[in-house]
Design a protein that fits this description.
Layout: E1 7-10, E2 52-56, E3 63-69, E4 87-92, E5 98-101, H1 110-117, E6 123-127, H2 134-137, H3 144-154, E7 158-162, H4 176-188
Parallel strand pairs: 5-6, 6-7
Antiparallel strand pairs: 1-2, 2-3, 3-4, 4-5
């Protein structure tokens, strides 16, 4: 359960401002999953179900962290496959800026639902690689075209592609995801500057609203 420095809530209510010690690391996690090498939750680590949230202290004011659905298998050992929820994260800054981090996921109806519950997403970090062969990987890894569709479903202004060309996990050429996501984005007619296809190691600041 959360400590005194973190308050959990669902999206049906507004979380109270958090209090307590600043600078203490927190590892938010779903039920039945415990961070740490021994599988034990670290003190004060919030345990969240889908659509639950916690507010964590930050210098500019509390940052809201929502746990949202995604589709993949979860696993830490050889015997605990799919024993816990899998999900992504929705971060809301004190000034209202919102980032959706999908993590590892396939494409599905949950993106529209996330967009409905959290309007005004500024940036969506979505996976575009490790998708070939589709008969095996479609349920757990979006391909580049699905990532662009997911961004549209979310109502996100910008897309930052991720999960590609780090390890050779699948059958597609390493740079194919980048070429395909650029083509899929161009086909939508959306501004090129809103596709954050950053080089490895690069960074970019999300401008204030």
């Amino acid at each position: 359960m959360p400590s005194s420095s973190a308050t959990t809530t669902t999206t049906t209510s507004t979380p109270r401002p958090s209090s307590g010690c600043r600078g203490t690391p927190r590892c938010c996690s779903p039920p039945e999953w415990r961070p740490g090498p021994a599988g034990a939750a670290s003190p004060g680590s919030p345990i969240l179900d889908w659509w639950e949230a916690v507010e964590l202290p930050a210098p500019g004011g509390p940052v809201r962290v929502d746990f949202v659905p995604a589709h993949h298998w979860s696993k830490r050992t050889l015997t605990d496959t799919c024993r816990s929820l899998w999900g992504g994260w929705l971060l809301t800054a004190p000034d209202g800026r919102r980032i959706h981090f999908a993590g590892d996921t396939g494409y599905g109806h949950w993106f529209e639902e996330i967009g409905r519950r959290y309007p005004g997403i500024d940036l969506a970090l979505l996976p575009i690689g490790a998708y070939d062969p589709r008969w095996m990987l479609r349920p757990v890894h979006t391909d580049p075209e699905e990532a662009v569709k997911a961004c549209q479903d979310l109502g996100a202004r910008a897309l930052a592609p991720m999960h590609w060309s780090t390890f050779l996990l699948s059958g597609e050429p390493p740079l194919e995801p980048l070429h395909r996501v650029r083509a899929a984005w161009a086909a939508t007619g959306r501004p090129r500057a809103d596709l954050w296809d950053l080089p490895v190691g690069a960074s970019r600041v999300l401008a204030a609203r």
